Amino acid sequence: MKVFVILCCAFAVALGASNTLWNDTDLDTLRNALLKDYDTHVRPSNSKTTTDLWVGMTVLHMEIIEATSTLETHAWLKMNWTDVKMKWEPAKFNGIDNMRLSADDVWQPDLTVYNSAEDKIVDHYAKTNKIAYPSGAVLWVPTSKFKTYCSLNLKMWPFDQQKCEIKLGSWTYDANQLKLRLSDDPVELKHYYKNQEWVIVDSSVEHHQTKYDCCVEPYEDITFYFTLSRRSPMYKAIAVVPTIAIVFMVLIAFWLPPDAGEKLILNGFACVLVCVLLIYFSQLLPVMSETSPLIVSFYSQTLYLLSASLIISAFVINISRKKGHKALPSFIKTIFLDNFVETVFACKSKAAEKAEHTVEDGNAGENATKDWIRFAVVIDRIAFVVYVIIFICMGFFHFV
Fold first, then answer.
1. DSSP class of residue 92?
2. Quick one: 244 and 380 in the same domain?
3. Sequence-ordered list of residues with C-beta below 8 angstroms from that of 343, at least 6 positions apart, any chain
4. Per residue in 334-373, pLDDT tens?
5. Full domain range(s) for residue 135
6. 307 Cβ partners below 8 Å, 6+ apart?
7. Does the predicted model carry a pTM greater than 0.85?
8. pLDDT confidence of 47, banded at 50, 70, 90?
9. Cα-flanking dihedrals φ and ψ of residue 152, to 5°?
């Protein structure tokens, strides 16, 4: 029993000693003095006094998501304001000239992204500490992630530039209560992590004051504008270079002998290649109701031209290989063979010269075959010239 009493006394002495080991620091004293009875839900100014909020942004990373027409931004949002409840005299607190506070300790402005594309209401800012100063100034630089709507124009894809915006404003405080101001350097890019696809080529900031239908008081917002240019070396290899190969395949087909079946193979392969690329584009790009990329339009029009080229090739092969032709109609012969047309377009091609040397005079059927072969050559050459002109016009319209 005596042992138990002795142990209880020792424990009580130790407990009392532990309570006297800790003394409040100067920061504890200052914190208790400032935050006693502090209401974080009340704006720290008199009702007739406006709180000035200085805003700036340090951009860390940006990414445009075409599928959802959104801009994803990682940044540090710099906010400064004066909290009259947080003033103190450093001399009374051992010279303390700043103090760290948790995010929920003091009032903070309800700065909201007006054009947010988040699926649900989220807190845009991380719960980082605030820094308070004796003058009542409060500095808060939370890491932030914004997902905002961006109206995309992919007409010039993959050489496009997109202009997107981030619109920030108070959700409940009007301009008479919370005055938004731009910091000295409102947009900083020195900490920007380079994107593999997008480059920021321009940035600007504008301050607006708007009256909404819901309220009589004006509300302010600060809108950050960013112009991003796509870096397109890979897209050049995927989308642009194949156009050169396809154009050459189409044009080469017109220079093959008129009876060569390779014409159909070449044009057919070009058709398959165009279809594959169009399917690839449909998976890569969103469906745009207003404008479609010019490169997609180019491939679509090329597919029509290839279809026409297949028809021309099939017709040329048919009239070149068929034996026992009737004589070429006189008006066709007059227009295409007996004047400068054949000289200009066919240039007495090897196929026509071969026909002339292999066909004996006096045989009406074989002479007719010779005329049809010469006519086929002229059709090929005329089609070649027409397609060259069409491709030049299309290239100028789509890529220049």
1. G
2. yes
3. none
4. 555 555 455 555 555 444 445 444 444 445 556 667 777 7
5. 27-231
6. 271
7. no
8. confident
9. -95, 140
Q: β-strand 51-65 against 99-101: which pairing, if any?
A: unpaired
Q: Is the dihedral of CA 299, 305, 311, 316 positive or negative?
A: negative
Name, in order, each residue with C-beta under 8 angstroms of 254's C-beta and a sequence gap of 6 or more.
309, 380, 381, 383, 384, 387
Q: What are 227's two structure tokens?
A: 């112009």
- Measured between alpha carbons, how far is 230 from 158 in angstroms, rounded to an integer? 7
pLDDT at 225: 96
Task: Choose between 199 and 339: higher pLDDT.
Answer: 199
Cβ proximity of 187 and 205 under 8 Å: yes
Q: Is residue 367 domain-shared with residue 279, that is, in the same domain?
A: yes
Burial of 172 (0-12, 13-18, 19+ CB in 10 A): exposed
Q: Are 269 and 253 in contact (CB under 8 A)?
A: no
Of 231, 251, 279, the last residue of a domain is: 231
The SS3 of residue 394 is helix
- Label residue 311 by pLDDT band (50, 70, 90): very high
Q: Residue for token digits 């490169």? A: 295
Instruction: Give which of 327, 315, 375, 388 is closest to 349, Cα–Cα.
Output: 375
Do 227 and 249 lie in one domain? The reply is no
Strand partners, 100: 131
Residue with tokens 């010779």, as numbered in its chain: 370
Q: What is the mean pLDDT of the chain?
A: 82
pLDDT at residue 140 greater than cutoff 90? yes
Question: What angle is formed at CA 389 by the lines to CA 386 and CA 390, rounded to 5 degrees?
Answer: 85
What residue type is 151 in one-letter code? S
The number of helix segments (H) and strand segments (E) in the chain equals 10, 11
CA torsion sign for 32, 33, 39, 42 is negative
